[in-house]
Each structure stands twice: as structure tokens, then as C-alpha cells.
Amino acid sequence: MNWYKETLMISTRGKGLYAFTNDVQARVHGWGVQEGMCYLYLPHTSASLVISENYDPTARVDLEAFMERLAPEDQSWYQHTLEGADDSPSHMRAMLTLTSISIPVEDGRLCLGTWQGIYLFEHRASGHRRKVLLRCLQVE
Amino acid sequence: MNWYKETLMISTRGKGLYAFTNDVQARVHGWGVQEGMCYLYLPHTSASLVISENYDPTARVDLEAFMERLAPEDQSWYQHTLEGADDSPSHMRAMLTLTSISIPVEDGRLCLGTWQGIYLFEHRASGHRRKVLLRCLQVE
Amino acid sequence: MNWYKETLMISTRGKGLYAFTNDVQARVHGWGVQEGMCYLYLPHTSASLVISENYDPTARVDLEAFMERLAPEDQSWYQHTLEGADDSPSHMRAMLTLTSISIPVEDGRLCLGTWQGIYLFEHRASGHRRKVLLRCLQVE
After folding, report:
1. Nearest-CA distance from A19 to chain B in Å?
2. Given an 8 Å threshold on Cβ–Cβ distance, is A62 in contact with B70?
3. What is the mean pLDDT of residues C5-29?
């Protein structure tokens, strides 16, 4: 068994879903891993990971609008407001989605479904440089 | 260390929670894994994975009704409507639940809590054949 | 490769987020793991795992209040009410958050972000003794 790792950097331009499927696949390919497990970990509290529809852009638009409604800004009962109106909702949205994902690798490829893409969900209004920690356990 | 894998097929009859705990446990037993880690991955964007109450069926009924209310169909602001009224909400519901789960194995059994069951949550109105990718890392 | 494990016990005093980051880090340190993967699994259906802001306590207050509103008690349509008004909402809240988390270990430390803490989210009104299953795969 072998162990590979890398930190991916993703620049966001504010709120929204940013696909980085190809970045992950390219590393797995570069390492020559045929079979194993790929781990993604996001070391941030106001962004999160999501696996979702990669084909029709309107699916993404709806997911983003849904989150704005589910955990809206500017609620009178928010106490955590020092860093701006988007701060507390960003932790809520991160809590409802994912911090870590484990994806099998087979025949040198991530076992994603046909319509699945890997996304970083930026929850802050301004752009950020986000890290995604990538680890891969090669079993053959 | 050894590596085992299989793809489980789960047929759904439309929206709802479908238990498949025993299918996973049977594979772990069949492989003879005593100690290790079991990984589940769902390669779909309109279904998801959930670990929840396995005893009282009314718990399941409430979870299903809750999702209908949390991400309802037929909202006027939905843009992703080509594939039907249940399509965009199905991606929302999948985003709020799980795509991958990692469960420890000890003494030849999944380390589930007494009341925990493993479920596939089908979010589309019509029945589907769903895959769950099962991987198991045996450490002894 | 080596495999380490332990069960952490966390006593809660009713609803809320309970940090246990240091308990996990102390085990990883004690095992002497420099590089690898740390797995957390929660064998309960009315509590869950969350990684979130560890600095400003008001962030936690808002996350707790948010959950009270997102999956409120005492809805007339709840069927699963035998064990109390907090029972069905506790399964809903668990479903929306995490059951398992995988965190990389590097240079002997969990790869958490600067502001990330690991929390058990207790969803029942009364205090409970909760287990968190900790597993660590050491790759060097």
C-alpha cells in the first residue's frame, strides 16, 4: 500500500459552488493510483464540500438560492455578527453540508457517478483562497 | 492489510428511506473481516445516504415528511425544472445529507449503534436502480 | 502501516455543541502517529458530529438556535412522539449533520484549520453519555 498527498488551492470570487473535479482526477492520474481510496478534507469553517449535478448550470443556481433561503443573512436573532452579515450564515451552511468526503478509486479513476461533480461551496460574500487537503491510499 | 469491494444494487419505488444495513453486514461477514474500516459511496445526485433510527417506523415517516417541507417541490424560483418538479429538490435533499460514510468494523461486525440503520434516501418520485459502492480495508 | 483505536466518552448536559478536539489530538499524539488518517464515527441517532468555528462562542449560540428553528419541536404533523417532543427533531438534526468524519494527520497533528474545532452536537434535552469511535491509520 502507498500513500499520496497534496493540497489543492481554490480561488473563489464570493458565494457559490466551484467545481474542482478535474483537479482531483488529475492528481490521482499523476500518482498512477489504480485502486484505492481518495480522501478530501476542507480546513475551513465558512466554506464546505458538496458532490452534486455537474451538467445543467441551473441545478447549481437553485442550490445556491436554496442555501440563501435556508440560512438567510440578517436575522435579528443572530449574535455572531462582528465579521459581517454573511459570517454566521456561512457557518450554518457549512454545518449542513460536508467537511470530508471519501471517494473510491478504481481502474485509475474516481468512482464518481456520471452526473456527479466535486464542488467547493464558498459561503462568504468576498473571494477567498481555499485549501482542500487531498489524500490517497493506494491498495494496488 | 487487505482490500475488499463490491457494488450493492438497491431498487427503490420512489421517494423514501430504504434500509440496507443487512446487505453491508453480510458482505463484511462474507469477507471475514474482523477489524478495519468500511466505506460506503453513493454515485448519484438525486439520492443520498443516511444513518438513522432503525426501530420505530414513525421516525422514518417524520424524516421523509421533514424533507418534503425543508426542500419542497414547485417553488416559483426554481430554474432547474426540465426533468420534473422533483428534480431540483432532489439535489437539495442530497446536498443536506451524505454522499459517503466511513464505519469502523470490529470483531467482524459494523460498529453501528444499537438503534442505527443504514439507509438509502431516494429523492425522486419514481423508482430507480441505485448503486452503493462498498469498500473495506481489513487491518487484521 | 499501523492501526490504532479508542472509544472516547463524552458526557452532555442536554442540547448543544460540545468540543472534544483536544481529546482526539491527545490520542493521536499518544499513539505517535506522524502521518495518516483519523476516522471519527458516532454510533448514536439523536446526536451528531460537526466541525465548526472554535473561537467566538456566539458562533456556537447561533448554530444551536438555527437548529431549533430548522427542525423545531412540537409540530402537529410529527408522528414519532412517544419518547418526547425532542425525539423526532433530534433525528432530523442528526440527519442534516455528520455521522462520520475523516481528518488527515500530518507531522503528528490533525490537519484542522486554524478556526476549526470538532464538536459533538447533542440533540436531546437531557444529558447523555455519548461514545465517539476513533480509528487511526498510520502510514508512517
Report:
1. 15
2. no
3. 98
Task: Tell me how close the Cα of C11 comes to any Cα of chain B, in angstroms.
Answer: 17
Q: What does the alpha-carbon distance between residue C117 and residue C24 come to, in Å, rounded to a whole number?
A: 11
**Which of A98, A93, A88 shows the shortest CA–CA distance to A68?**
A93
Min CA distance, A85 vs chain B (Å)?
A: 22
Cα-Cα-Cα-Cα dihedral sign, residues C79, C80, C86, C90: negative
Encode pLDDT of A42-68 as tens digits.
999 999 999 999 999 999 999 999 999
DSSP string covering C86-99: THHHHHHHHHHSBS
Which alpha helices (DSSP H) does A35-135 contain, by range?
Answer: 57-70, 87-96
Distance in angstroms (rounded) separating the CA atoms of residues B79 and A62: 6
Contacts of B138 in chain C (CB under 8 A): none
Tell me the mean pLDDT in the region A91-113.
98
For chain B, give the mean pLDDT: 97
User: Is residue C25 within 8 Å of C109, Cβ to Cβ?
Assistant: yes
Binned at pLDDT 50, 70 and 90, residue C140 comes out as: confident
pLDDT, position B31: 98
The pair phi, psi for residue B83, each rounded to 5°, is -95, 10
Look up residue C67 and give its amino acid.
M
How far is B90 from B84, CA to CA, in rounded Å? 10
Q: Which residue of A has its CA nearest to C112?
A: A43
**Nearest Cα to C3, choosing from A36, B1, B112?**
B1
- Contact (Cβ atoms closer than 8 angstroms) between residue B119 and residue B130: no
Q: How far apart, in whole angstroms, are the C-alpha atoms of residue B25 and residue B3? A: 16
Chain position carrying cell 454566521: A88
Chain A, chain C: beta-carbon pairs less than 8 Å apart: 80
Interface size between A and B, measured as CB pairs under 8 A: 80
**Is the separation of the CB atoms in B132 and B8 below 8 Å?**
yes
% helix, strand, coil for chain A, step of 5? 25, 40, 35
Q: pLDDT digit string (tens) for C24-77?
A: 999 999 999 999 999 999 999 999 999 999 999 999 999 999 999 999 999 999
- Percent of chain A, pLDDT > 70? 100
The per-residue pLDDT for range B62-118, each reduced to its tens digit, is: 999 999 999 999 999 999 998 999 999 999 999 999 999 999 999 999 999 999 999
State the CB neighbour count (10 A cutoff) for residue C59: 27
- Nearest-CA residue of chain C relative to A5? C104
Contacts of C114 in chain A (CB under 8 A): 43
